[in-house]
Amino acid sequence: MPILAAETSLPNGGLTTLDLVVIGLYLAGMLCMGFVIARRQKSTDDFFIGGRNLPAWAVGVSILASLLSTITYLGMPGEMFRTGIGFLTRQLSIPVVLVVVWFLWIPFFMKLRLTSAYEYLEVRFNYAVRATAAVICMLLIFGWMAVVVLTASRAMGEIANLQLNQHFGGTAAVVDTQIATSDLDLHVIIAAVGMFSVLYTTLGGIRAVVWTDVIQFFILIAGAFVAMGVVASMTDSGLSDWFQYSQEYKHEQVEWFSWDIGNRSTVFSIAIGMCFWIICTHGSNQVALQRYFAVKDVQAARRSYLVSAVASFGLSLVLAAVGMSIMYFIAQHHLPAEAGLTSPELTTVRTAQDNMFPQFIRYYIPSGLRGMVVAALFAAAMSTIDSGSNSVSTILTVDFFRRLYPEGRTIASELKLARTVTATMGIIVVVCTIGLYHASKGTDIISLCQKGFNMFLGPLGAIFVLAMFSRRATAATVLPAVIVGELVGICSSYSNELFGMEFSTHMVVPASWAATIVSSLLLSTLLRTLANEEQQQWMWRPVVRGAGDHPVGQDG
């Protein structure tokens, strides 16, 4: 393949007036949608679950947009630099995940007619388990939103021509040529991203979340195609050229399997990690389950999941192509050092990989189109923040306020509380993000996920598995097991800091899930526990095989 003449200087980077106009129009459109939808709300049922009548296809797109966010939008192209198409082995989990979510999770949860997933845990165990799971989920969501806002903010700082320091993964060679931005600059970006996302969610609730997610998803896809189009036009190349170069480039070798727990990525660990992540997310995380609760029945929920799964697979291929195209572009242009992309060898630095896409957008996407791609980054972040804020508001209202203060429950008071809590989320997320920013030096996006939130997901998913399938699981065995699982999750996420050893980031969720399950089963054997007959009626088989719905809570 021909190599173009090396570039000795960069095009002007940063956002132009036209870019800012494009971004401003996008943000104004999202805010207007929140105002319009807010007028239709009459109860917390509308705010939390959209009256259980949202279109299945829109909910499916919302599930994907909410769960993937900037973590995937920036992380997957970066992983293509590091491991190549080996990272796509995560798709090997699809058959197992499809069976579990389609045949086990969806029919079970849709029968219960829930608003919060954790209402179920009280009838199966007791309120202590319900409250514990609700708190774990809120911690997960706060950490998740903090990672998303941080990745979006650092990318926007790069693109807006704020020179970034080693907090964002710059190498020593790169930092020497840059003027480090002040912490204040980044704090302002973090506050703007977090607070604006919460604003329209406060107004419009889940209906606003779903419909803005749909719009944001298509903007996100358009942004990826714009990036590939620019590479294709500037290098006179196409997908086959990018794929060929990716195959020739010496990525980190992805083995099929390794007994070394510090081996970050193997085919086995990537596939197993993704399998557990999806199963636990769709079986215990309020963010995903609340989408299913917003459609009318099992068939609609299955259609939503199918749309989400197909769109997720397609998006993975698109973002992999983006990563390959930018790799090819770097190799062809021999970019100067001030770009932070001197050569493909920089991709061996752990966090340099995450700067590739933002730097490409900053210097080479034309004005106007650059604004559209930045809007896509906003979209990826906002789709997560709005979903997380709405879900935390649901948990606090349903699992705590409604449960502990039933005498204060009125439609007006609950709706006001829901909006107040959602608005407060913006402040909390900004604070969490700033804390994570200062604690995450030299950490790439994929690894940051484990430190920020995935350490909570395994035990949360295990609680529901035990509730559905173990007659011996009781509150007395589940609560101690959750503590064990969380300790395993924390220790494996921070293994390097705590023990000076690496632990595969993809195995954090499976390890903490297994620790919770095994601990509960061992305690059940030692204590000879058995759920009473009433509690056993809330296990998977009686609920799914029984006639009609088994409603746990009452719609608000």
From TrEMBL:
Query: Which GO terms fall under molecular function for this chain's record?
Result: symporter activity
Name its GO BP terms in alphabetical order. Answer: sodium ion transport
Topology in the lipid bilayer = Multi-pass membrane protein
Check the record and name the Pfam families matching this protein: SSF (PF00474)
- Family according to the record: Belongs to the sodium:solute symporter (SSF) (TC 2.A.21) family.
Q: What is its main location?
A: membrane
Which key words are in the record?
Cell membrane, Ion transport, Membrane, Sodium, Sodium transport, Transmembrane, Transmembrane helix, Transport
Keyword check for Ion transport: yes
Tell me which PANTHER family the record gives.
LD47995P-RELATED, SODIUM-COUPLED MONOCARBOXYLATE TRANSPORTER
The organism named in the record is: Symmachiella macrocystis
At the top level of its lineage, which domain of life is listed?
Bacteria
Query: What would be one Gene Ontology cellular-component term for the protein?
Result: plasma membrane
Where would you find the membrane-spanning parts of this chain?
20-38, 54-76, 88-110, 131-152, 186-210, 217-235, 266-284, 305-331, 372-396, 417-440, 452-469, 476-495, 507-531
Return the protein name: Sodium/glucose cotransporter
Q: Where is this chain's protein located in or outside the cell?
A: Cell membrane
